[in-house]
Amino acid sequence: MFSTVDPVLLARVQFGLNISFHILFPAINVGLAWVLVYFKRKLAKTGDEAWMDAYRLWVKVFALSFAVGVVSGITMSFQFGTNWPGFMDRAGNVAGPLLGYEVLTAFFLEATFLGIMLFGSNRVSPRVHTLATVLVAVGTSLSTFWILALNSWMQTPTGHEIIDGKIHVVSWWQVIFNPSFPFRLTHMLLASGLTIAFLLAGLSAYRWLRGDRGGDVRAALRTGVFLGAMLIPAQIVVGDLHGLNTLEHQPAKIAAMEGIWKTGTSLPAVLFGWPNEVESRNDWELVAPIPGLASFYLTHDFKGEIQGLEAFPNAHPPVLPVFLAFRIMVGVAMLMLLVSWVGAWQLRRRGEPRPWLARTLVGMTFSGWVAVLAGWYVTEIGRQPFLVYGILRTSEAASKVPAPLIGTSLTLYILLYLFLITSYIAVLFYLARQAARKDGEAFKAEAETPQPVIPNR
Amino acid sequence: MQIHDLSQPAGWLPLVFLGLLALAMLVYVILDGYDLGIGILLRRAGDEEKDMMIASIGPFWDANETWLVLGVGILLTAFPIAHGIILTSLYLPVTLMLIGLILRGVAFDFRVKARAHHKPWWNRAFYTGSLLASLSQGLMLGRYITGFAPGVASWLFAVFVALALAAGYSLLGSCWLILKTSGTLQLRAVRWARGSLWLTALGVAAVSVVTPMVSSRIFDKWFTLDNLVWLFPIPLLTAGLFLWIERLLRAFPDRQAAGDTRHDWLPFVISAGIFLLAFIGLAYSLFPFLVVDRVDIWQAASAPKSLMFLLVGVVIVLPAILFYTVYAYRVFWGKAHPLSYY
Ligand code: HDD
Ligand code: HEM
Ligand code: HEM
């Protein structure tokens, strides 16, 4: 069935599918781990049981997401060898130790203390239990640090030399703190914070709409909305800086993101269009009415010059997916800004959301996932045709596993992931409904008597 | 075999990393072995027993699997060439193993969080995933030992090793249950352990017989007179352990009836000992090759500078990992309790 398909293409699709599935769960867990620490602190400080109830629901979400994250991560650690032996052969001296440090410093930490965090609360003191929760959170963030160091190095490689075609490290400091790393790490950590903010808000708004208005629902809803409102401006600023950095190091990627075909100055911003690679232009182009806008936000000068795709013959990425994915990410960011600020305002003024807002929040429960995936597609497809930018082409690194074998395993993965993602989302909403039922009586009584607006602290 | 200058980093670093790789794989096989084994046994248990069995591995399974990640990580880091060859040759079983591990890992959580009437399905997924992962690991081992030789005979051998490894994991799993539970479940575990003992023993024997047949180099390593004298204790001890655990298990019900719990831990230690000896024998046969008679550790090793960078981390972090792993096992010491999920 697959024997006529290019094995390199299949290997790429398979890798892309696996990592896309994997990242969904770290995106939740990195942020959620810290939110749980926050819930625990709030409980300790206010003594309000609502925080404990919130913790109880969200730690279940965490356990579930963590399990899916771990097992899909294990798949990832095999993918380098099975799909990209050429990559390990040539870049193993860099990739290996960075992945090794991730395992040593992050994975063992999170996996071991997860046991204590989830099951140990009546076996260790509250203090140790909180420490375990913090260590799990530290572990997830550390793991982001290492894997993004590697990924950023693949985007903007520095600190190495090439001997006999193999990459050797000259300075580990420069390898780890390569030019795009600080931006990428910050952008990803914020992305994770936003993902969990909207998940918190969305699931709580869902409970709210079902008439479940206990203290824990309010607490989680407020946490989500305010966290989102705080993080999104930061994310937009960091994203902009990230773009400037990319312009410096990967100008072809920027040209594809912006749909700029010809080098020029005072370029307008393309709001929407459909890049047409055959004719090197955008169909149905819609340009922002401000002249030189793209030049302005990319170079911070209305007259700035930007190189178009024509400047990179044979070394620029496919334009359409990069262009669209970038617009999806920025579009979601704008939606997030709007919704979280209106939400924060309503919660401050009225103490509770209006139904239309609650419905919007439910609709945006997984908006973080959309933006995260879109962002990674920009980054990764935008790096093509290179695997390590400017050094190693993707086609050189692919495995020689025959296409039917890759195709079969790819089919298995697709089926499994479809099944898991459906179950995961269904169970999340089921857990939210269940949480209501448990303290059902309490919250009903509360909902029926008019509630004083919770004073703002 | 080429002589390497062990006073140079390029000479000794690969040896150190081989040692670490061996440690990671051994710890993985024993630790994840018992929790995979419990997954395989799950099908035979009653409903409440299922919960208790899973409670006995709840806090540990995730960290146990991390040793696999460390093993693959070291292989990838220290011996990238071997990593490429081994994993592409084992493409299919690796995929099946991963799918098995995914299924069981998620089923572990879904079974208590999804709707109650879905629970039996997640239990089935847990069982199927565990069995699939164990069988694929056995298949990988069997293929690896024969140097990925083509032909029906070597595949049959691999299939047999797959079954035997699943039995071995069931042995570890039931011994873990003997350690962590009491009452009727413990008695059932004793029966399961006795049931899996024989296939495990046959598997160890088969691997011991086949490995020297694969390569004349391995044959000579074992069957020259001087070597045989000091190697002989390995098979002898292994056989001794099998007999010991058999007798122990046979006497167990009476012990339990008499209220004697002093030796509940012993079967697990003995079965881990069996795995340890089998592992040592295999490691001795293969050394210093990573792919039988094709790629040795020096040919496959990464640049010394990269290995050195990682070694610094290992020396600092590994003791910490061992320390808190022991700590976590101490926290959950004693008989398992039903899990409360926070
Ligand atoms: C933004 C962060 C991030 C990114 C880009 C990746 N991961 Fe990941 N990974 C995590 C963040 C993370 C995490 C937050 O640490 C885990 C722990 C639980 C979870 O859901 O995600 C995780 C789990 C996890 C595990 C299981 C760890 C365990 O046993 O506890 C492995 C083996 C990997 N990952 C490997 C990879 C590889 C090879 C990647 C890239 C190709 C990768 N991850 C991308
Ligand atoms: C976590 C979020 C990530 C997502 C969603 C993601 C997504 C993708 C996608 C879609 C591709 C295919 C691109 C194409 O073929 O056109 C790809 C390729 C690749 N990525 Fe990532 N990636 C992520 C992170 C990483 C990280 C952290 C690394 C390495 C440390 C990495 C290494 C690679 C490699 C080796 C390829 C294969 C070469 C290729 O097909 O281009 N990726 N990724
Ligand atoms: C207006 C807002 C935003 C801008 C200007 C922006 C900008 C960028 C740019 C330029 C890149 C590609 C960098 C490169 O590969 O060189 C990127 C990647 C990415 N974006 Fe955004 N972004 C914005 C909003 C968001 C939001 C809201 C999220 C998620 C919640 C997000 C998640 C990501 C992720 C996960 C990546 C890939 C990893 C990385 O390169 O950091 N972005 N973003």
Radius of gyration of chain A: 24 Å
State the CATH topology of chain B: Formate dehydrogenase/DMSO reductase fold
- CA-based gyration radius of chain B: 21 Å
Helix content of chain A: over 70%
Largest interface: A-B, 71 and 62 residues
Overall residue-averaged pLDDT value of chain A = 85
The H-and-E topology of chain A, N to C, reads as HHHHEEHHHHEEEHEHHHEEHHH
Number of strands of chain B: 2
Q: Note the main sheet of chain A.
A: 2 strands, antiparallel
N-to-C series of helices and strands of chain B = HHHHHHHHHHHHEEHH
Strand portion of chain B: under 5%
From the helix content, strand content and strand pairing of chain A, which structural class follows?
mainly alpha
The assembly state of the depicted protein chains is heterodimer
Ligands bound to this protein structure = CIS-heme D hydroxychlorin gamma-spirolactone, protoporphyrin IX containing FE
**Number of domain modules of chain A:** 1
Membrane topology (chain A): Multi-pass membrane protein
Family (chain A): Belongs to the cytochrome ubiquinol oxidase subunit 1 family.
Transmembrane segments (chain A): 15-37, 57-78, 98-119, 131-149, 188-209, 221-238, 322-344, 356-378, 410-431
Pfam families (chain A): Cyt_bd_oxida_I
